[in-house]
Write a structure and sequence with these properties.
By secondary structure, the protein is an alpha+beta fold. Helix content is 43%, strand content 22%. The chain has a six-stranded mixed sheet with strand order 1-2-8-3-5-4, sandwiched between helices. Strands 9-13-10-12-11 form a five-stranded mixed sheet, sandwiched between helices. Strand 1 and strand 2 form a beta hairpin.
């Protein structure tokens, strides 16, 4: 695995520059991330702002003009950012571009990308001090379409509903796009006001994954941003980690839909282990439980007992949650839920082989080794590890820590985990059967 060098320092109050130095890539990446609280009242506006910013600037007032500017920078690609990171929402602008090592201009090409990003962020095209109505209305409709489209992937929909119900009393229950109601209520005046608040009150994390000298790129950002942003940065943002389920009994929610395959999600709190989290032990536990093709859920619920089309698990360690999810025939719901509980109990009792444990560790280590393969995955790793409290850690270091996870570590995580909520997207039974299709053909 290639060694990654990370450095982080404050450009000025509230604005931090992160250099992930590597010369591995032919393409490089810059992201400018505004960190704000995940809040039902502002989430749709925060997500919409980067999309509107990319529609036009004072210097480049049209999409064609922006496109021409990116073409001059060797086909640089600008894109909006919106990420739910625990109970923090990160929004901003990203740019993928050809490494300066491969252009005649060298570092000057990268500096040109910085100039364009700052132009988009700081100098949007305005009318009467507000965003252009056409830009807002067009991007708002696209956001509404994105919200509605989440229903198309039924497992994604079931997961979103599970999070909504499980964390109804927590900010985490808010979707990163918001709701149709919150998005539909956006006006250009409200959005313009929110943009100015975001610009002047949000801590900013800038990431540069590339080979240019740190100070060259940092100075370019310092010159362009210091008089515009972070006038009064709000550092009082973070994630509230609830150790215990909301109620003693597991809460159950269901929704019927005209689908052939039922989908359910079991939400768990990681519990007391989040007091001083051993993140690698949590990762290994998750893989052993349901995070891979050698996991307990895959090998037993799906393969051995044939109770599900798939059975897996995933974590959000920033919030201290783990979810088991599955696609089933309706008649197998009770059996599948029961079997998932049995497999969790097996891990609590140490009922897993050394081979299973070693396979889980190898899977986690492999995931860390693949992080430096793409600038986007490397940047995402650095952002998440920063919020976990490891601003200088490399994938290589996490890989080494995974190799130190013991059987006792995994058992301790399993014993800490407690079920909180089940959401079941239940087949309604209204889908047409074979006889119904035959009748339609006769007609």
């Amino acid at each position: 695995m290639e060694s990654i060098t990370r450095s982080r320092f404050e450009l000025f109050p509230g604005v931090f520059f992160n250099h992930v130095k590597t010369d591995k890539f032919k393409s490089e990446l810059i992201t400018v991330n505004f960190l704000t609280a995940l809040d039902r009242d502002t989430v749709s506006m925060n997500t919409l702002i980067p999309r509107v910013l990319l529609r036009g600037t004072v210097k480049h007032p049209t999409l064609d003009s922006i496109s021409a500017a990116t073409d001059e920078l060797y086909g640089t690609v600008l894109f909006p950012l919106s990420r739910k990171l625990g109970e923090i929402l990160s929004v901003g602008i990203g740019a993928g571009f050809v490494s300066g090592r491969l252009t005649p201009e060298g570092d000057e090409n990268t500096a040109g990308v910085v100039d364009l990003i700052c132009e988009v962020i700081c100098n949007p095209l305005m009318k009467s001090g507000r965003f252009v109505p056409e830009f807002v209305n067009s991007e708002k409709e696209k956001l509404l379409d994105d919200i509605a489209s989440k229903l198309n992937d039924k497992q994604t929909y079931a997961m979103a509903k599970a999070v909504e119900f499980m964390c109804a009393c927590e900010h985490y229950g808010t979707d990163e796009y918001g709701t149709e109601q919150s998005a539909g209520a956006i006006t250009r005046q409200k959005l313009s006001e929110r943009y100015r608040t975001l610009l002047t009150s949000s801590p900013i994390e800038i990431f540069y994954c590339g080979s240019c000298e740190t100070e060259r790129i940092a100075e370019a950002f310092r010159d362009r941003l210091q008089n515009i942003v972070a006038i009064n940065p709000d550092y009082d943002i973070g994630t509230d980690i609830r150790m215990d389920p909301l109620e003693d009994e597991v809460r159950y929610y269901e929704e019927e839909m005209d689908i052939a395959q039922g989908k359910f999600v079991i939400g768990y709190r990681l519990g007391d282990c989040m007091e001083e989290p051993d993140y690698e032990a949590i990762r290994v536990f998750n893989v052993l439980f349901g995070g891979g093709v050698t996991s307990k859920l895959f090998m037993n619920v799906r393969e051995k007992l044939s109770l599900a089309y798939y059975a897996a698990s995933g974590t959000d360690m920033l919030k201290g949650l783990i979810f088991a999810y599955s696609g089933i025939d309706g008649e197998n719901y009770d059996k599948a839920v029961r079997e998932i509980g049995i497999q969790l109990e097996a891990i609590r009792n140490g009922d897993f082989t050394d081979e299973e444990l070693n396979n889980a560790i190898a899977t986690v280590a492999s995931g860390h080794k693949s992080v430096p393969d793409l600038p986007t995955s490397l940047e995402n790793f650095c952002m998440r590890s920063l919020l976990m409290g490891f601003p200088d850690a490399s994938p290589e270091e996490f890989c080494a820590l995974a190799g130190e996870v013991t059987r006792e570590d995994v058992i301790a995580i399993a014993k800490s985990v407690r079920p909180d909520c089940i959401f079941y997207l239940k087949p309604s039974g209204n889908l047409p059967g074979e006889e119904d299709y035959e009748e339609d053909e006769d007609e």
